[in-house]
Amino acid sequence: AQKITQTQPGMFVQEKEAVTLDCTYDTSDQSYGLFWYKQPSSGEMIFLIYQGSYDEQNATEGRYSLNFQKARKSANLVISASQLGDSAMYFCAMSKPRYSSASKIIFGSGTRLSIRP
Amino acid sequence: GAVVSQHPSRVICKSGTSVKIECRSLDFQATTMFWYRQFPKKSLMLMATSNEGSKATYEQGVEKDKFLINHASLTLSTLTVTSAHPEDSSFYICSAHRLAGSYEQYFGPGTRLTVT
């Protein structure tokens, strides 16, 4: 069975600082996809970044980067130069590889990030 | 980008009544849609997988007679909470996969159900 673990229930960060949100996962699959989503208070799920298990390079999307360490089964999200608008709930998630088939997503418990001005 | 809508965004109903929530893919076809439930300050939990033209596949512990799912077309899936009780109050979110070419998954904005 697949499992996602986020050990930081909440984090406070000063504006403009970088922040790392931790995520570890467990799966017996050889091929999988890892996602990070942002959920503001409005409730919508906003896709941030994706990493395929066979991708050799760490994914980057603007201020977001994913520190993928396959051997350690970790997929930490790094947000550079944090902004007040980054305050939200962040979920790490796992699924089959993005372009393979329609598959359910398993979510971690989430980390609530609060940015201090 | 692809858009998924949910209707209603908020609903309040009395205990014992049934409530239908719609999930629509507005600009793409989706053979597969997923329904998630989220309790306050908790994570999203998958309830069921909805496939167009066939019966939904429910996750363990989810009552199929309580949460009726219908995926009648390639752009619409509905979740009906039957004989709702206060413990059914929750945030319900759907997601939809494109039909082909790319299996990107897009989330709807969610529906907040309150049962009084």
List the helices and strands and how they pair.
The complex is a heterodimer of chains A (117) and B (116).
Chain A: E1 3-5, E2 10-14, E3 19-21, E4 24-26, E5 33-39, E6 46-52, E7 60-61, E8 64-69, E9 74-79, E10 88-95, E11 106-107, E12 111-116
Parallel strand pairs in A: 2-12
Antiparallel strand pairs in A: 1-4, 3-9, 5-6, 5-10, 7-8, 8-9, 10-11, 10-12
Chain B: E1 4-7, E2 10-13, E3 19-25, E4 32-38, E5 44-51, E6 57-58, E7 67-73, E8 76-81, E9 90-97, E10 105-107, E11 111-115
Parallel strand pairs in B: 2-11
Antiparallel strand pairs in B: 1-3, 3-8, 4-5, 4-9, 5-6, 7-8, 9-10, 9-11
Task: Provide a descriptive summary of the structure in words.
The complex is a heterodimer of chains A (117) and B (116). Chain A is mainly beta and 117 residues long. In chain A, 0% of the residues lie in helices and 50% in strands. Chain A has no helices and twelve strands. In chain A, the strands form three sheets. In chain A, strands 2, 5, 6, 10, 11 and 12 form a six-stranded mixed sheet that branches. Chain A has a four-stranded antiparallel sheet with strand order 3-9-8-7, with no helix packed on it. Chain A has a two-stranded antiparallel sheet with strand order 1-4. The N and C termini of chain A lie far apart (41 Å). In chain B, the strands form two sheets. In chain B, strands 2, 4, 5, 6, 9, 10 and 11 form a seven-stranded mixed sheet that branches. A four-stranded antiparallel sheet of chain B has the order 1-3-8-7, with no helix packed on it. Classes of the chains: A mainly beta (117), B mainly beta (116). At the A-B interface, strand 11 of A face strand 4, strand 5 and strand 9 of B.
